[in-house]
Design goal:
heterodimer, A: mainly alpha, B: mainly alpha, MetI-like fold, 2 domains, about 80% helix
Chain lengths: ~325, ~325
């Protein structure tokens, strides 16, 4: 081990770099830029509010989201769903439950759907993409074969329009919220896999990899310790953006009847999907959860875009 | 060029082969298996056993797969459970509707998106720029089916400007030739029928166009901005070329490559949106039929449609790659 450190020290001498000289890391720099970007701040503000509602929602909700308190007043068959009143600020839903409470409590499930499906996609995608990328960048002939097999499988997933892929998975697993999360997650697997692989292959050609190789660092160590951390930026940006699309896609799956068949636990996508039937009577029932979804998705998108800009080395000063 | 296309076509074979295995496994793993898919929930144990025997489900998997592939290659996709008609017939009857809708959406998205993105880039920082960037960010975040409902509620139910459902007014008694209603109207010179079909396409077309439009605006803007900072644009300007030549030959042509990539990807992806939009507007294309198939658990239809759509999707991507080499001669070398 010590010989390697010696070598690195000697390299330092050769390049005549000062002992204590070091630049700001990409992440520090990116964080500073995100902090100065007004759109990013708007995105962060939206997300902070959203997460806050998701956490404290159940405690501040004025009524239980599952109680059919207004059952007697609601006749959805005859087009009667009472609207906002002093007691029920946003009125009842189609089964006589307090709409505001359902929105407040539903934020948590919605956040969960976004996070879990993104995590599913990110984990599998990064694993496949990471192995393929490492194999392609460093592995010679065997590596290229591993890479091309993995990527062909990813291509196959990409050969299906996302919603149809999700529908196929949902048909397999039956309609439930878990199904929705898995389906939405799997749909994003190829995107993550391709991104990480692409970034790693690009990094494999850089000078520091050459330097590490010539210092005799093991290939697996180069892949995990050097190439991987330098390839993560686009993946993290994509994960932020995927959080937005995951929530929207989950709503679409609910609309297609593949979501949770039991609407007791409120979730915005499901609420929006269910409210479509009562659009003529009470458009608000669709508009509130829709606004929730749009604003939240916007928050993630704004933050993701700002991070993309901040992490782009081309824009670094 | 031809070698390039042939090579790409050959590369499709392993993809489609893998896809067929996936679909084969998928059909076998569905809750209840294929016999439930055919019988629905009401099959008795005897009937199930009979069907398993008829379908050869008691034979080795490899033989089953061979038979499955043979049917696929003969384009025999089985019979729909709910309509009792051939899946292929159902598909061919509905596909033109979806193609019409997709083309409409793409015309809207490209026709508005590229000029808007270009102008936003040229007037960077202007109101138009911020409005189109902001609008496109919001556009991506609106669920398509919700937008479709909103458009329908405002423009057809309240303002009564557009029809709210279907592909054409059935009382017109339009002649059918190709099942492309607009084209049929033009071919038979039934102008009112063509116009009516076109009128039915506008609202679903806009709903379907929303996401591609948003993405095209942003990609065009980014791509044009990048090209604008190139030396050759400055050279072209300083040697006094007129604005039109610079725009067409120097900026747009070079900015086109990423735009075409995205357009290609989006065209395939439009099928996802079509399922939602067609359902809202009761527009009888493959999307609305897929929705019914999902709710009826009509597995033969689901599988057949998914297979055909996958092939179609892959072919669209091939077209994109080919158009690359037409736009950018450098790609041809590889």
């Amino acid at each position: 081990m010590s010989t390697k450190t010696d070598k690195i020290d000697r390299l330092g001498e050769l390049t005549a770099a000062k002992q204590d000289e070091h630049g700001v890391s990409l992440w520090t720099e990116a964080f500073r830029r995100v902090r100065r970007n007004p759109t990013a701040l708007v995105g962060i503000a939206i997300l902070v509010i959203f997460v806050l509602v998701a956490i404290i929602g159940p405690w501040v909700a004025p009524y239980s989201p599952t109680d059919f308190i207004g059952k007697g007043e609601v006749r959805s068959g005859q087009g009667i769903i009472p609207g906002p009143s002093a007691e029920h600020w946003l009125g009842y839903d189609h089964q006589g439950r307090d709409e505001l409470s359902r929105l407040l409590v539903g934020a948590r499930q919605t956040l969960l759907v976004g996070i879990i499906s993104t995590l599913i996609g990110l984990t599998i995608g990064a694993l496949v993409g990471g192995i393929a990328g490492a194999a392609a960048g460093l592995g010679g002939r065997v590596g290229r074969a591993v890479d091309s097999v993995l990527m062909r499988i990813v291509d196959m997933l990409l050969a299906l329009p996302s919603l149809l892929l999700a529908v196929s998975i949902a048909a397999l697993l039956g309609a439930s919220l878990t199904t929705v999360m898995i389906a939405v997650g799997v749909v994003s697997v190829p995107i993550f896999a391709r991104l990480l692989r692409g970034a790693m292959v690009a990094q494999a050609n850089s000078d520091y990899v050459l330097a590490a190789t010539s210092l005799g660092v093991k290939r697996t160590k180069i892949a995990i310790g050097h190439i991987l951390p330098n390839s993560l930026a686009p993946v993290i940006v994509q994960a932020t953006l995927t959080l937005a699309t995951a929530i929207i896609e989950a709503a679409a799956l609910s609309f297609l009847g593949l979501g949770n068949p039991d609407s007791a636990t409120p979730e915005w996508g499901l609420m929006l999907a269910e409210a479509q039937r009562f659009l003529d009577i009470r458009p608000g029932l669709a508009i509130y959860p829709a606004l929730g979804i749009i604003i939240t998705a916007l928050g993630f998108t704004l933050l993701g875009e700002a991070m993309r800009e901040a992490l782009d080395p081309k824009l670094r000063k | 060029m031809i070698r390039f296309i042939v090579r790409r076509l050959l590369q499709l074979i392993p993809t489609l082969f893998g896809l067929s295995i996936l679909l084969f496994i998928w059909l076998r793993r569905l809750p209840g298996g294929p016999e439930t898919a055919i019988l629905g929930e009401r099959g008795t144990p005897e009937l199930r056993a009979q069907i398993r025997k008829n379908l050869g489900l008691d034979e080795p998997l490899l033989i089953q797969y061979g038979r499955f592939m043979k049917r696929m290659l003969k384009l025999d996709l089985g019979t729909s459970i709910s309509t009792k008609r051939e899946v292929m017939t159902e598909f061919l009857e509905r596909f033109p509707g979806t193609v019409e809708l997709t083309i409409t959406a793409m015309i809207i998205a490209i026709g508005v998106g590229i000029p808007l993105g270009y102008l936003a880039a040229r007037r960077r920082g202007s109101f138009l720029d911020s409005a189109s960037v902001g609008g496109s960010l919001i556009g991506i975040c609106v669920p398509v089916f919700f937008l479709a409902y909103v458009l329908k509620a405002i423009f057809s139910e309240n303002l009564q400007l557009f029809p709210s459902s279907g592909r054409q007014d059935p009382t017109l008694g339009a002649t059918r030739i190709t099942n492309f209603f607009v084209l049929d109207g033009l071919m038979t010179r039934e102008w009112d029928a063509a116009l009516d079909a076109l009128w039915h396409l506008i609202l679903p077309g806009i709903a379907l166009a929303s996401i591609p439009l948003a993405i095209i605006v942003r990609i065009t803007r980014a791509s044009v901005l990048e090209v604008l900072s190139e030396d050759y644009v400055r050279t072209a300007q300083s040697k006094g070329l007129n604005e039109r030549t610079i725009r067409g030959r120097h900026i747009l042509r070079n900015a086109m490559l990423p735009i075409v990539t995205v357009i290609g990807l989006l065209t395939g992806g439009l099928l996802s949106g079509a399922v939602l939009t067609e359902t809202v507007f009761a527009f009888s294309g493959i999307g609305a039929f897929l929705y019914e198939a999902i709710s009826n658990r009509d597995y033969p239809v689901l599988m057949g449609f998914i297979m055909i759509i996958a092939v179609f999707y892959v072919l669209v991507n091939l077209l994109v790659d080919v158009s690359y080499s037409l736009i950018d001669p450098r790609v041809r070398v590889r």
